[in-house]
Amino acid sequence: MDSLTIMGIILLAAGFILAGIEMVLPGFSIPGIAGIICLVAGVFVLADTVTEGILITIAVLAVLGILLAAALLLFSKGFLHSPLVLEEEQTRTEGYLSSSDLEYLLGKQGKARTDLRPAGVVQIDEVNFDVLSEGDYISAGSEVKIIKVEGSKLIVRNISE
User: Fold this and answer.
1) Rounded to an integer, what distance in angstroms lies between the CA atom of residue 147 and that of residue 98?
2) Contacts made by residues 100-107, CB under 8 angstroms, sequence distance 24+
3) For residue 135, is pLDDT > 90?
4) pLDDT per residue over 72-83, tens digit each?
5) Contact (CB, 8 A) for 10 and 19
6) 44 CB-near residues (< 8 Å, 6+ apart)
7) Residues with Cβ < 8 Å from 37, sequence gap 6 or more?
8) Cα Rg for the chain, rounded, in angstroms?
């Protein structure tokens, strides 16, 4: 083997290693860019003809596909920690509320922070909520009351008149 072939193999190996690192870390950063550069350079160094370059590129893409499948398998089985998956629980005792927990606001009163035409913001107990009026225009500063909760939608009525 001559030195160009060895250098091409080293570039491909480095490219695969960097691509594997990029598959484990979120985002498109230095390992991904460097891996692409190494893989392209490795193909150019190893290929003597266009046909060889195409075949090497197909082989590189196949190996990258196998690497991706392996990474996804390891993430799904829990052998690798996925930086993209939230593992902490967001419980009510820690102050987190889901959209279905808005029933407690039914009947509460607050002040319109923005004009409601029909959507806007209302402040209730020092907390801002996105709301919808019953269909009427309600000016900012008006007192409103929550009359209906539909999932995450809060429907309000003007009570300052």
Assistant:
1) 19
2) 100/151, 100/152, 102/149, 102/152, 102/154, 103/149, 105/129, 105/146, 105/149, 105/154, 106/146, 106/147, 106/148, 106/149, 107/145, 107/146, 107/147
3) no
4) 888 777 777 666
5) no
6) 53
7) 15
8) 29
**Tens of pLDDT, residues 76-110:** 777 776 666 666 776 767 666 665 568 888 899 99
The answer to whether 23 touches 81, Cβ cutoff 8 Å, is no
Task: Please provide the DSSP assignment of 52-79 as one string.
Answer: HHHHHHHHHHHHHHHHHHHHHHHHHHTS
Measured distance CA(103)–CA(99) in Å, rounded? 9
- Cα 60 to Cα 102, 136, 141: the distances in Å are 52, 62, 64
Coil, strand or helix: which one is 127?
strand
Q: Where are the beta strands (DSSP E) in 41-152?
A: 109-112, 119-124, 127-133, 143-150
CA proximity to 112, closest of 151, 81, 157:
157
What six digits make up the tokens of 61? 């893409």
The pLDDT assigned to 96 comes to: 65
Backbone angles phi, psi at 21, to 5 degrees: -65, -40
